[in-house]
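Q: My labmate handed me this sequence with no annotations at all. I'd like to see what the chain might look like in three dimensions before we decide whether it's worth expressing. Could you predict it?
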Amino acid sequence: MIFIWLAWIAAIGIGLLFGARLGLLAGFLLAAVFTDMKARKIPNRLVLTGIVIGLLAQAFLLDGEGIVSALKGLAFGFGLFLPLYLLRVMGAGDVKLMALVGCFTGSPAIFGVVLCTLLAGGVLSLVFALKLKMARQMLSNSIFMVLPGAAKIAGDKPSIHPAGVNSVGTLPYAMAISVGTASYLIWQGI
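A: Here is what I predict for the chain of 190 residues:
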């Protein structure tokens, strides 16, 4: 709980620097990162509160783009990450967190945010694997995932690896969403 309060204090500072809407978004993202790292979950209460505040911020703040843009951002953020949840690549909290980000950024920006988030996730996964000295296993897993598809495209029968895949671990993806969102906003000149 203390982490959530620290995130809100940081959000107030960021809000004073960059505007209320982005400050609020930063606070929700920081709170999500702290809870995801600590409990490996992003609370629904946090996400739903963020979505409501994001919709209100877009509708009523001077730097907001409007409620329609917020709703489109929510839908696109959710829709772009939903297939990754269905493939069991990420958790439901991550999908809902991207919908929250879409509320605050609006529909035009959410596509860039998603791309930057996926890139940040790849880099953070590599750093995570290197830190755990599991980079070789990560490369092996990547090859195992790519080879069946490549064989299918070439018209060959895909071979089944008898040993299967050993997981390198999981990444608290709220961190990747936060880094990707911040990177995109900075790249666009906030």
